[in-house]
């Protein structure tokens, strides 16, 4: 039986390859994800470790509470006098202090140098302490007062050299500095797209507005002093607001934010790998079901020769195991190519990531192989069990079919119950409060999985009515697409083939060659290569070929439509793979539309100014000096900035914001208690709360709110007002205080946004005035309300496009599923096709028949998938206040068109195989 299983796999290479595609692609994404994220993580670890070479301990500022990674603010700086104090400790061998911050380099074009979303790093350099210096000087000299060193990558990309002048923008306006030298970062081969700007300490302190302050002190212990002894000695002299860690612990702390992002990024990509594998499991199950039905007499013969049901079961499972093993191995190594390709794609897009070479860990191999094999085995169990029901007598019966199982009549009810159970789990996860994150995600994942399986099993009942309804849509869709493609592909392809090896006079063939080349030059190259192959090998392309028509062929499409309804279970299983992909694509599109619309409504409700000042990347905060530059511009009626930071209240870290007295003139709140005037009269102890925060902690106007700030000072605030943020979000935190109170307790304050109203409103002249005022801050820009909505919405759309690309993998898997089903169906209907050819069906009609069946199958999957995606989106929209239910009609039409194209492309190869069948040989096929 083992040899039988091996011969079964080797004897059906085409079927095995097509069946394995889904697993290969899914495993490749899993493998590629691990390789990519492990490589990035390894590179970042090297960077953070390099930062603390020759270092035993590091002193940094300490906020009064743990800051969240997604909020504004960071560790506060501390007094520079601490450096001399720790240097005098007998356990300390060497100590050096430094400051750092964001330093934008300005190119020759006057724009900030940015490579994707990578950071712009600025820091101080002490050449007297080379043991702590992680930079290698490539050209020039180290910086002195008013000078800067920059990284070689930025210099090469933007045309700078040592000795040139370059603009640098930090906390203040742009300053011109001399480039004293070019540097590289230690032994790390690539730090990604980050830009480096190094200064001497006094210059850096001035740029980052930290006079007499330090961000970090690096320590090296004296010989014979352990790290623990050094830490204990330093801890005794540390003032409040500072902390000391070992070098390893500090490197790990620095990497924490990056590690969290990489964990999320890895999980994000693995989810889509899992989706591809889930869709692939449907392809595997359907393919095995078809082949087992086609091998009924083969299995019956085995049973006649003495094979037991268990042996038949094991033989089918063994075939699946071999298929899964080969697929997993192929996907594992294809993942290396995917990881390499993603690095290059990121580079091409300007999102250069740190890279020290690909990391291929044992965990990647084990997980990828296990996932591929297990998914294939699970998908094979039901077809394998069906194979055991083949009776021995079927060996002598012509056209024997598998008998239905004893529980087959309960399949629709079971499928419906499965889908209902899935819906119940999703509803529980969404609407039951108090669930942990793990429980919530688990309920949603299992619920959606059961919904997909239940709908896929039940959809066989829907195939005949849906196929009948899809038939005219398929005809007209193909007709329209054929008309579009005819002058661009069909006609030039026929003309060029006729010109190279068809009949006719030389003049007419030459004319066809010229016309075909004009209509599609690419096809000229392709057909030319075909002609060369025809001349040097025995290969002969299909000819004579009928002149390409446009109108549909009623007999051919009629048979194709009947074929799609002939076996509802097979059609439903084939359509299920596409259904899952399109359901998820529809879900993403609907949620995207539901997020963008409330966001734009929120902007319209809050944004009452004429302009908003934001960073060039639309999300980074800006220093207050940017707002100060336009405060006294002629024509400014009102200007107010929204400070952003973090505070602590009721034992939790919360986002806080600060506004000044002009805020009521540029932003509008939906007040539950208080008024617009309240926002400008907060003073030293007033606060405005969002309604959810106030309700959660039972706060009303007049209540006292103790707010702990990052410096450890607690502000005794009085609640002056409560507002309801719009559903689409708000830039304001849970607690909003006055700018004066915010700046007094938050070192290095930053503005999330600055809103400006000018006399005359939005005009070209006012826009030009603002742009001129911001010319010394190249990292800032002025946007009107409509421009603000557009750039923020474009960011959401960019995320949606990434999701579409990843979900396209599942649609690609489903395309191969349709191809596989049609190829197997052609084998199954070989004698039938021979009969049709014998009674006059032409090759073109055979192709159109197969194509029509394929398009109907794709449309069935599209209809069920789109409706299911809309249903899931409606549940999420009902739960999430930030999301409204908005049907993206245009995108749904596009998805329908894509489905038709998937059906057409999936039918190309099977249709050509069917058309090439010899009628006489087909009639004799067993």
Description:
Strands 15, 16, 17, 18, 19, 20, 21, 22, 23 and 24 form a ten-stranded mixed beta sheet that branches. Strands 4, 5, 6, 7, 8, 9, 10 and 11 form an eight-stranded mixed beta sheet that branches. Strands 3-13-1-14 form a four-stranded antiparallel beta sheet. 56% of the residues lie in helices and 15% in strands. The mean pLDDT is 87. The chain is an alpha+beta fold and 926 residues long.
Binned strand content: 5-15%
| Number of alpha- plus pi-helical segments | 27
The description of the largest β-sheet is: 10 strands, mixed
Task: Give the N-to-C terminal Cα separation.
Answer: 23 Å
Oligomer category: single chain
Percent helix: 55-70%
Q: Average pLDDT value? A: 87
> Which structural class do the helices and strands define?
alpha+beta
Quick structural gist:
By secondary structure, the protein is α+β, with helices and mostly antiparallel strands.
Task: Sum up the structure in keywords.
27 helices, alpha+beta, 8-stranded mixed sheet, 926 residues, 10-stranded mixed sheet, single chain, elongated
